[in-house]
Design a protein that fits this description.
Blueprint (H helix, E strand, L loop, with lengths): L4 H7 L5 H15 L2 H5 L11 E12 L2 E10 L3 H12 L1
């Protein structure tokens, strides 16, 4: 886990780093909802298995911390062709 700024400094300390790291790792599964990520996909891709590839914190400004998640969907060539054709219609 890497971070910049104040959070990065706290994570690097021996006294607070492990505690903060544990709190973040326990909280991440509760704030990342795969269903809400799938809603952003085209309807034809929503049934496909979704795999998170990375999760990062972002500075939202004003003391707010955001979460940026990247996901990957793997489908067969036929499914990809079908989805592509449906997007062109």
């Amino acid at each position: 886990m890497n971070a910049d700024g104040v959070l990065g400094n706290l994570l690097r300390t021996d006294s607070f780093g492990p505690w903060i790291r544990d709190m973040i790792l326990q909280g991440v599964p509760h704030v990342i909802q795969l269903g809400s990520i799938k809603e952003q996909l085209p309807a034809a891709l929503r049934p496909a298995p979704l795999r998170l590839t990375s999760v990062a914190f972002t500075d939202q400004g004003g003391g707010r911390l955001g979460l940026y998640a990247t996901a990957e969907v793997t489908v067969s060539a036929q499914w990809a062709d079908s989805v592509w054709r449906s997007l062109l219609q």
